[in-house]
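User: My instructor asked us to take a sequence, write out its structure as tokens, and then describe one feature of it. I'm not sure where to start. Here is the sequence I was given:
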Amino acid sequence: MANIADEFRCIGKGFCGSVWASSQADEPAMKREDGGPGRSLRNDWDMHNIVRNAFTSLKNNFDNMIVPQPHVFITGEDMDWWNKNVSRFPVGFSPCNTLVSTRVPPLPKPVRERLVDRYCPPQLAPLIKTNRGDEDCVVRPYLGRRRIGQRVSRFQSFTLRNFPLHVDQMEDLGLNIFIYAAKLADALAIMHWVAGVDANDVEFVLASCPHQISSPLTSDFLGEHTLWILDFDCCPGMPMDLAGVEQAVAAFFRNDPFFPRPAATDARDQGLWRHFRAQYIRTSDEMLRDSSLKKLPELFIEHLEERGRELAMHKEKLSTD
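Assistant: Let's start with the prediction itself. The structure tokens for your sequence are:
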């Protein structure tokens, strides 16, 4: 039996699988392929490496955006590894494909407590502040969604894992949403035109900084933090042509609302979209430079805005029927 200090505990779950780590903060995270059918951790590994290499090839220009370092892909048949480690998982867990990568460091306790004090139902706050699972706190920046007409459910729940901060909440907390919009635009441009992937279902989270970062993001509420980019199992390669543009447009609207939305009705969101659009074009131009592909980023934006208008008209029609 493994020593308690060496046991793995679950720090997250997704449709592709569960994520585990030991109690040692500097040890890596392990993503197991034990989720829904049709999801490929092998594809996650391949695309993760491609995206990581794309970002690291750009040196220090984008050092406040981090793709975790992928360390090793463990198959379910790698008995050398599993004989040493299977006992560190709970009883009943069997070998399966596992991706080992740098762990995303959670936000520190003072930030977690501020989130609880601000957003948690008061009767749940003492539990959340002492719950081990809620120490694994990262924030999802939802710049493409505002909370409207929020009603308090009598079936209340709360968790700090993958905590969503909608754009109105970010404004209320005094976060500079234009900085985050620019960072997300940079990240998307790099994935499209350096990594050559469509960014389908990729996750963006705000979390703590590693020690080596030179220019972290900072705010009074979140303190020093950075943008982490992860989860590439649904992320295929993208042809560098019109078909690839259409593929990237579809991926944009399938993803969670991290990015500002085209065809927004709120004036604040319209301004945020313009900022995102300009930064995406600027960074894409920098990535492609004299390439014959320089027209593709503008086509992507044009098609996004056209699709955004179509979706807005469809939504309006449904509301009037």
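For the description part of your assignment, you could build on this observation: The mean pLDDT is 92. Try explaining in your own words what that tells you about the chain.
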